[in-house]
Amino acid sequence: MTFTKTIGAALLASVAMASAATACEVTLRSSDTHPDGYPTVAAVNHMGDLLEERTDGRLCIEVSHSAQLGQEKDTIEQTQFGVIDMNRVSLGPFNNIIEETQIPSLPYIFRSVEHMHKVMDGPVGDQILEAFSDHDLVGLAFFDGGSRSFYNSQKPINSIEDLAGLKFRVMQSDMFVDMVSALGANATPMPYGEVYSSIQTGVIDGAENNWPSYDSSGHFEVAQYYTLDQHLIVPEVLVMAKSSFDKLSAEDQEIVRQAARDSVPVMRELWAAREAESEARVRAAGVEIVTDIDKTPFIEAMVPVYEKYVTSPVLQQMVADIQATE
Ligand code: GTR
């Protein structure tokens, strides 16, 4: 009897599991370069839970984390082709493809993270999300990426002069190459996944990123000098392949958009907690951190970058709108 009951229970459980697995009519595969548990991955998983709930399990999301589907630049192309349904990436690798994404990626464009939230939650954010539609993508939501600062394996950076001659990896964006050159250093664009070994082998001296990425990538192990110059506050974005989006009914499309929007406050909370955790972890690991850096020469050095990239009236208006946002 007990035996039969056990088998019965096991069978029921496997039937339940099978039906749970097959209940999703559509499973959207979403890419992320970060490991499981990272705030961006957790936020897209949360969005997936909302989708399942709101469509009675018809729509699901499966996040392929840890760059399982490739490095960001390649996964962007695959998303444009519809091979990948969704993608959570930084705006940086979009800079060379969609010029509107350059504006919130400009160095020192935001006065603070709060300023960035205000802008990206408002009309400029909507304008950028809209710009994805000319590139076979649907812009769904912006996530936090904190502020990015330089780290390297050679020496502490106490002033802009200390950057001279050092070689830094940047995301694959021409604007970031020019940003580093304008600061007097050398830039090498390279995929995120190659940075650790490139620092270790001396191909580059360092890179630049936020606390959680500096921590989770392990870059702090090979580049122990981190200077909080905070040159970038680049938002991250969640996009969907237009071809995958177009397969959904108008009602489901709206559910997807809303679930993405609803994941944003959750992401922001997870992000703030993770920033504090990561900072504590790398400080405990003995990283040397320079916090009192004079940012004025850094900001002044960015004038030629703005001149080169903020060219059309549309882009100039976006910059003016951002600066006017209180
Ligand atoms: C991280 C960001 C990633 C990726 C990475 C990089 O902060 O979350 O999407 O862009 O930086 O530097 O490539």
TrEMBL record:
Keywords, alphabetical: Periplasm, Receptor, Signal
Listed PANTHER family: DICARBOXYLATE-BINDING PERIPLASMIC PROTEIN, PTHR33376
Signal peptide bounds: 1-23
PROSITE patterns the record matches: PROKAR_LIPOPROTEIN
Compartments it resides in: Periplasm
Coiled-coil annotated spans: none
Molecular function terms, GO-annotated: carbohydrate binding
InterPro entries xref list: DctP_fam, TRAP_DctP, TRAP_DctP_sf
Protein name: Tripartite ATP-independent transporter DctP family solute receptor
NCBIfam families cross-referenced by the UniProt entry: dctP, TRAP_S1
Entry annotated with the keyword Signal: yes
GO aspect biological process, one term: transmembrane transport
GO cellular component: outer membrane-bounded periplasmic space
Annotated Pfam families: DctP (PF03480)
Domain of life: Bacteria
